[in-house]
């Protein structure tokens, strides 16, 4: 379960994913509308050679988002997954996210529970948005899943991830949701095909593939992620999602 050590954060449950999530208590929110951003990071054993660059990318995403015109209307959640998923932190106001908090946040090692982590991110975003809606807040969302390989250990199926996305649409908890699957260091064509199939089977908005994971590439990834979050935030109130960006 998420680790709670902040009085402003509350634990929530989800239907399919037993892990649940944490999020800022409604009473601690000051704006009338929010964009909920979930960044999901693969920390399985195969990312060990570029774990430092991944950490720097996460820190840069948080830093860059603070320069968004809608920074005061952003909440961000960071999760990591290997054999199991773990919440680095739940949906927090961007102003409460410090770059130093991520210095040793990613713990590398294990298999790849891609489906479990993806389903949890979608369910958490939808569930919290529904809570916001019941309290007269407007919200949209963006989920970005970053992985270097195919699933090999999840308890949930591709169908369960799709079910979470379909339920979100049926609940109408969000004005819009952008979902992006990012393949990093994809040098095996078979893995690339598997990830593209996962994107299509679930209904992700976009699939982005990077063929390496050097510092320059992951810096570009961080820029892409932060700009995608900012664009979706600026689309809140338009009735639709932001346009897909490219790296």
Structure description:
The chain is of the alpha/beta class. The protein has a single domain (9-235), classed as Rossmann fold (3-Layer(aba) Sandwich), CATH 3.40.50. 34% of the residues lie in helices and 23% in strands. The chain contains 5 helices and 8 strands. The protein has helices at 51-65, 114-134, 158-171, 189-202, 215-235, and strands at residues 9-12, 21-24, 33-42, 74-81, 85-93, 138-147, 177-183, 206-209. The strands form 2 sheets. The protein has a 6-stranded mixed β-sheet, sandwiched between helices. The chain has a two-stranded antiparallel ribbon with strand order 1-2. A hairpin with a 3-residue loop joins strand 4 (74-81) and strand 5 (85-93). Helix 1 (51-65) runs parallel beside helix 5 (215-235) and helix 2 runs parallel beside helix 3 (158-171). The longest helix is centred in the middle third of the chain and has 21 residues, at 114-134. The radius of gyration is 16 Å and the shape is globular. The mean pLDDT is 95.
Low-confidence stretches: none
Helix/sheet category = alpha/beta
Kindly give the count of domains: 1
Name the CATH homologous superfamily.
von Willebrand factor, type A domain
Number of strands: 8
Question: From the 3D coordinates, which CATH architecture would you assign?
Answer: 3-Layer(aba) Sandwich
- Termini gap: 34 Å
Shape: globular
- Report the total helices: 5
How would you state the average pLDDT, rounded? 95
* H-E string: EEEHEEHEHEHEH
